[in-house]
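Protocol step 4 of 5: obtain the predicted structure for the target chain.
Materials: sequence only (see below). No template structures provided, no constraints applied. The aim of this step is simply to have a reference model before the mutagenesis design in step 5. Sequence pasted as it appears in the construct record:
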Amino acid sequence: MSILFEWLSLKSGYLVNKGWRLYYSIPVYALGLLFLRWHLRFIRSESGRASMR
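Step 4 output (C-alpha cells):
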C-alpha cells in the first residue's frame, strides 16, 4: 500500500526522487513493518512494562 502511495506521489509531482529508486523502498518498508511489529509486541509484553518502572 505504501509503495502505491509513493508511486502516485511521484507521478503527481508531489515527491521528487534524487538518486532514490522506487524499488529501493520495498525492503525499507518491509524492514520497517517488521520493526513495528516487534516493537508493538515488546510494548505489550510484561517485560516491556517491567522495564518502564
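Step 4 remarks: The first helix runs from residue 2 to 12. Residues 19 and 27 are 16 Å apart (CA to CA).
Proceed to step 5.
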